[in-house]
Amino acid sequence: MATTVARRMPLARLALRCRAVWMESRGSEPPSSSTKNGNGKDDFTPGFYDNLIQKYAAHEEEHNEVVNLKKLMKIGNAAQVDERHSVVWENARFLQKELPKRLARRLLDLQFLPYIVVINPNIKKVYNSYYNAFQTLRKFPEVKDDESNADFTVLLKRLVDEHGPMVEALAAGLRECKSKPFIGDQLKLDSFLNSMLTSRISRRILAEQHVALQQKRQNFVGIVCTQLDLHEAVDFAYRKAQQACVETYGTSPEVRVIGDQGEDAIISYIPAHLDYMLFELMKNALRATVENSILSGGGKGSRRKKMPSVTVKICKGRCAVTIKISDQGGGIDSVDERKVWNYGYTTVDENAGLEIDQGLDQGGALDLSGAAAGSNSHSKMAGLGFGLPLSRLHARYFGGDLEIVNVNGYGVDVYLNLRNLRDKDIEIA
Ligand code: ADP
Ligand code: MG
Q1: Which residues form the signal peptide (predicted)?
Q2: pTM of this prediction?
Q3: 3-class SS of residue 65
Q4: Is this complex scored with an ipTM above 0.95?
């Protein structure tokens, strides 16, 4: 994870630095906490330089609990045999301590962004939502019994739902800031986004694990599915991606799935994470294939030309599984190859309405009728520029990786490596 300026600074210096940044940019003393204007509304982001945030954030590093599949499954296994629910209550108390610290650190990271970013309405929305979650969790009475745990669980579910759209808000905020004159490419937010989004993944896992500990689901230990069938996961992702592709372009390439079958294609993993990565990678492969076929003359006059299919291969190793997604979508231009890992990098031109306008007439081989031709329809397929970097972050979070082999002018092979826990790794000590 990237080391931020904030993380290296002692607390007292941090507070002074916050104050200095505020005064430098606004020419006045910072408010100690939320300030109200004449209408009783917040003048600025609530608790922007709240000492509490610094106090909680300072604890994160000492106690930062690493979340890994093995630990999650250990707690999950313990909860399954614990009739007195003490494992669940203990987990709730752990979260009550841990989540506010993690949120405080992210709030501090947000405070250290350049002023132009901090005042962006989308970034403020993220800040306010994190700040409210921080305060609500911090003030929640200690979980001691089933009743207080039930209330705490409802709160966690609500926070997970509320924080769902925050990635879009971050992406939109970033895009808006980058479009400002004199800022453009100078704004490098990748390390900030890496820590922001890694922390988001772990908070989400911790919250969802707590909810899952209280449910009995076959083949699940907490939120980890112990019988996750990779063929089913790939099928699910490509069907969803094909649907988005058809809605956007009116057509989609075929997808072929090959490789290891049966037991060899079953792993222990968190389904939602795998679904996210596979969906993003499938969309990229389908989009490249369709657009390349348009650009290489798949439009007018070549209606019957068949698009090359996308191939997915599942390969099981001893303690890792690789899912290889190969397309013949023309590849990535060599000059842009490194940029694809930057948050917000996309070749979708918001103003141009994708490349669909470039070579097609209505009713051509790639029919653009109805919703497919809508100006914003492509947002379902691409345009955020988060698919590759965020998928890699998810893969790496649990010890896997995501790599690309690009053949410029031909296509891309994407290798999604997932670490598979062997039985002996998850035994309860
Ligand atoms: P988005 O899809 O929202 O643009 P991504 O992070 O998923 O964001 O991808 C970033 C860019 O990388 C895409 O806009 C595209 O230009 C390029 N890219 C990704 N996958 C492929 C692929 N399989 N073939 C060609 N280009 C790709
Ligand atoms: Mg994408």
Answers
A1: none
A2: 0.81
A3: coil
A4: yes
